[in-house]
Predict the 3D structure of the following.
Amino acid sequence: MILLVALTVAGCARQEAARAEPAVCGSPAAGAVRVDAGLRAGRAEPAPHRVEVAEGGTVQLGVSADVDAEVHVHGYDLVFPVRPDQPGCVLFVATRSGLFDVEAHPETLLLQIEVR
Ligand SMILES: [Cu+2]
């Protein structure tokens, strides 16, 4: 059973975020835009970049890290954990247009998702 848990997110303006359901990282989801990001030695790798997604499209976001971290997709308020031995993934439908930061908390910007 998977529980959705509201939790406090430090380091940004959002007070609450939904804990995202883990998704499968390895296999690309059909029709989804695959976005990968990494956190290495406290920095985004590759360097923070912008990814365009059509509104209504599905995004499959995968993040790997060399430390334990929480990844936060702003605007959609999705949070999921990553660990060195376990990349984190989330699959979501881009129903809101705009420019949204994806952070590794507390404050490392990994990338921006532009939904238009
Ligand atoms: Cu955040």
